[in-house]
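Hey, resending since the last one bounced:
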Amino acid sequence: MLILGIESSCDETSAALVADGKRIVSNTVFSQIEIHKKFNGVVPEVASRNHLIKILDVVDEALGGAPLDTVDAVAVTNGPGLLGSLLVGLSTAKAIAFTQSVPLIPVNHIESHMYAPHLTNDIPFPYIALVVSGGHSLILKVDSFQDYELLGTTIDDAAGEAFDKVAKVLGLGYPGGPEIDKAAKNGDPGFMKLPRMLSERREDRYNFSYSGLKTAVAFRMKGMTLDSGTVADVAASFQSAAVAALIEKSLNAIRDTGIKRLVVSGGVAANSCLRSRLDELRGDGIEVYTAELAYCGDNAAMVAGRGYVDFLAGKTGGMKTDAYSRLPLVQKGKRVFG
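The structure tokens again:
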């Protein structure tokens, strides 16, 4: 089954062809990073207008000259994300599905990130999933593609947001994740002692809070001379603390459930410090699977892949399928109680 995937939830316009949920025929991504750099973050209106400009070209490139009638279904991200951006991709997908008389498969953005490691790995269930990106930091217990439980989330900033904000304070630019990762390679992670995030109280064993960490970095930088060495040391200190929380909370879930299998995805999964710590977990006897670097960020291959398993489960949409901006079960400021 050949599925055309379309992704436009934030600032990447992407289209992909994936056969049977695994064989990636194409994966085209147009990134708006250069457009949003001058704003130090994504401007929703600017993002949606650029999706409009690029979406048809991106779909054409993904098709690679193949006629649309070779596509068996169209999978598209319909939430969560920036509403204006989502509507561009959703409207395009609806038009293609309608004109070609093929099923439309609406895909949850978080579920597509969860599927990304499955594109290149055969992963048995159950497992603990860590989804960590610019907008989300989640830990889930996954028993099947359609059966999972949210264990923990962020009560304020997601990890990726904290990377962006600390990078801004350090003058490293946007996006913050890759910039901090690069600067930290020459820094001392022990340079700045930073607080642990959330206590070990039972209700916070799986929840994240990055707001206090980023604020602590900003306060402790006051009066510092930000030469290249200091920037590297601060970046390394922050990155080490941010990653430690991801590992610690994941280990809490592994110990409490007895499931020694961890699957990591999302944009922050590309971070070299996090990948190094995951390698250490492998050495401790934990099965660890990660999305390949090309599929960590927002991309349509993971949408098409997830669309395939949703289609097999009977989940399809239609012309009345709508977009949504937030996940009802994940609201910042509210803890998930274990």
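The CA atoms of residues 38 and 174 lie 8 Å apart.

Sorry for the duplicate.
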